[in-house]
Amino acid sequence: MTFLQTSISFPTIDFGLGLTDNPANVSANLQILLLLTVLTLAPAILTLMTSFTRTVIVLSFIRNALGTNQVPPNQVLIGLALFLTVFIMAPIFGTIYNDAFLPYMDGELSLEQLWSEGMEPIREFMLRNTREKDLEMFVAFRSDERPQTVDDVDTFTLIPAFVISELKTAFQLSFVIFIPFLVIDMVVASTLMGMGMMMLPPVMISLPFKILLFILVDGWYLVINSLVTSFS
Comparing C-alpha atoms, which of 137, 193, 192 is closest to residue 160? Predict the structure, then answer.
């Protein structure tokens, strides 16, 4: 019995370090490595250096104030927060694209210039929405020489100060939103206790009234309008 023998070629992959006489090869590899690093940090950049933090916190507090548990679901809230972030940050992203990315692709800017030009609009946005008190705290933590102007503030000092300011602003907006729903819960709970219906959960009775109030005042319009206009 004769078997046909066929040779099958398998590809091989070699990893190693070599020498090159062309510095451009090393520079291109470093740029690719830096680009991959930036892509891995993209979620953190999106959530911490844009309007996403304030937006998603306020939307989450609305759901808690209504007491609707998982309605709207998390996917809807996060999706809405992402689109609102893109809408709010669109002028800034456009400036980065026109002033930094396109010149870099045309060879007019180096990689270092791309970073500095691209970060400048984001720094201006963060500085406009950062409280001076929070910025001073992180500057003091660095124990460096006090910056004379805002341009002297290090980006890695500005980012946590901006996040702290965003958290405080988000909780302030959420507190204002919570007040009318809290009043409804208190009125319903007092009424049920006065009628002796202590076994009936007040949340079950107050939920339709809170939803009705939210619809009558056009709650989503008011909340989104307040969110967008809160960014200076």
Answer: 137
Tokens of 6: 């066929």
Which of the pair, 37 or 26, is modelled with greater confidence?
37
Instruction: Map residue 161 onto helix, strand or coil.
Output: helix
Contact 129, 135 (CB under 8 A): no
The CB density around residue 31, as the number of other CB atoms within 10 Å, is: 12
Q: Residue 62's CB: how many other CB atoms inside 10 A?
A: 21
Give which of 61, 59, 90 is closest to 75, Cα–Cα: 59
* Span 81-101, average pLDDT: 88
Element (H, E) at 64: helix 52-66
Backbone dihedral region of 20: left (phi > 0), alpha (psi from -120 to 50 degrees) or beta?
beta
Residue pair 209/186 in contact (Cβ under 8 Å)? The answer is no
Q: What is the pLDDT of residues 157-168, one digit of tens each?
A: 888 899 999 999
Q: Which residue has the tokens 């992180």?
A: 138
User: Helices 52-66 and 155-194, interaxial angle, to 10°?
Assistant: 10
Q: Are 164 and 201 in contact (CB under 8 A)?
A: no
How far apart (Å, rounded) are the C-alpha atoms in residues 169 and 50? 14
Encoded amino acid at 144, one letter: D
- Quick one: DSSP state of residue 86? H
DSSP 184: H
